[in-house]
From TrEMBL:
Family (UniProt): Belongs to the OmpP1/FadL family.
One cellular-component annotation, GO: cell outer membrane
Stated name of the protein: Transporter
Subcellular location: Cell outer membrane
Keywords assigned by UniProt, alphabetized: Cell outer membrane, Membrane, Signal, Transmembrane, Transmembrane beta strand
Bilayer topology: Multi-pass membrane protein
GO molecular-function terms, A-Z: long-chain fatty acid transporting porin activity
InterPro entries per UniProt: OMPP1/FadL/TodX
Plastid among keywords: no
Keyword Secreted found: no
Length: 401
């Protein structure tokens, strides 16, 4: 097996994760760091989802009931996720790399028509979470087969949310969480047999704590007094982005053809966004504090595929993927339970030291029952989302120097 075949799978465009499983977006791959020699890579992936449902016929909040079959409208906003890697092979035994991506995020907005009967004026529920991650990886290669690596990860997170309408009809809540920085770490090992294009790796990433200044505004609909403004305050709350494990494998199966697979686990069941004012008020009034976002289960995702080198300049891939989602009941801010996908990719290498690749994926989003944070831990749900889908697109360039 020619060594150049190795780049087929690793050069395959990855068109991104989706918010169906927690807030996972990039997949946090370190495959670019495992490329031979000095290497630079930059890419962007875009996800365009159609995500809509209908209100539960038995839905009732704040004395209001949903009309049968009332549609939510499309709540998913399109998003893009950039990434870049710069890797230096310092000596035969030591390498260093810098990996940048947007690992976690959310961007959802409910159209006004979805809940205009439940709110005042032209207001809409919407939430956005944005993260950035810069990992520094130092690798030790005792021989041509092994690569043992570790390093720190610097991560920023910020977010905002406005809760209105059907799921929150008794309240109006605004949150602005200023960007903060947290530090974590990663470690892993890779094993390779270059002559048969075999490469396997396992990478662990730690959880990262973020102590965030959260500005919250809350007013409630009182049955006698009407709207009661509970004021605006800024207090510190902690968000912990989850730990994860990535397993990656590829091997040559015939001349100029490789099979590849990756499996990812993310610890979403221990994740919470719990702004202090919202949590303490709901605990005082209902006996149980409400999280803005939480998940029942961990996420497991898997992708399998084949890569084929057609000639010295053209190669292609085909893949199929699956994601478990993060529980049977999901957040109204990202209402789908996992997915299946199929993908096609192509790579053009004008010269031996650089390439351009692109790809497309189609996602069948899992049907889901969505509940607001006020119902977390119960079997109540506000809406049912079925027959939804998404398209993912990606573009990447790689350069060896």
């Amino acid at each position: 097996m020619n060594k150049s075949t190795l780049i087929i799978a690793l050069g395959c465009i990855c068109t991104g994760q989706i918010h169906a499983a927690g807030l996972d977006r990039s997949g946090q791959s370190i495959s670019a760091f495992l490329q031979p020699g000095n290497y630079f890579e930059a890419g962007i992936s875009v996800l365009d989802a159609s995500l809509s449902g209908k209100m539960n016929d038995n839905f009732s909040k704040g004395g209001l009931s949903a009309a049968a079959n009332m549609q939510t409208g499309d709540i998913a906003n399109s998003y893009y996720s950039p990434s870049a890697t710069l890797k230096f092979q310092l000596t035969d035994q030591f390498s260093i790399g810098f990996l940048y991506d947007h690992p976690f995020g959310a961007d959802a907005g409910y159209p006004i028509k979805a809940y205009q009967a439940y709110t005042e004026g032209n207001e809409r529920s919407e939430s956005e979470v944005v993260s950035q991650n810069l990992s520094t990886i130092i690798g030790f290669q005792p021989n041509q087969h092994w690569n043992i690596y570790a390093g720190p990860a610097l991560q920023t997170v910020k977010g905002k949310s406005r809760l209105r309408g059907a799921g929150y009809s008794w309240s109006r809540y605004d949150l602005d969480a200023k960007e903060t920085t947290g530090v974590g770490w990663l470690a892993g090992a890779a094993y390779a047999i270059p002559d048969i294009a075999l490469k396997a790796s396992v990478t662990y990433r730690s959880e990262i704590d973020h102590d965030m200044n959260m500005t919250e505004s809350l007013n409630i609909l009182h049955p006698v007094a009407g709207r009661v403004d509970l004021g605006t305050s800024t207090e510190k709350s902690t968000i912990t982005t989850p730990q994860s494990v990535n397993l990656d494998f590829q091997t040559g199966i015939m001349k100029d053809t490789v099979a590849f697979a990756n499996v990812r686990w993310v610890d979403w069941s221990n994740f919470r966004i719990s702004p202090k004012k919202l949590y303490e008020f709901t605990k005082l009034t209902t006996g149980s504090g409400v999280d803005l976002a939480a998940y029942y289960d961990d996420q497991i995702s898997a992708n399998l595929g084949l890569g084929r080198k057609f000639n010295d300049k053209i190669s292609g891939t085909v893949s199929v993927g699956w994601d478990s989602g993060a529980g049977d009941l999901v957040s109204t801010l990202g209402p789908s339970k996992g997915y299946w996908n199929v993908g096609l990719g192509a790579q053009f290498s004008p010269a031996a030291n650089y390439f351009i690749s692109g790809g497309v994926k189609y996602f069948w989003l899992g049907d889901a029952k969505a509940q607001s944070g006020f119902d977390f831990g119960t079997d109540k749900y506000d809406a049912v989302y079925e027959d939804n889908y998404a398209w993912g697109y990606g573009l990447k360039i790689g350069y060896r120097f």
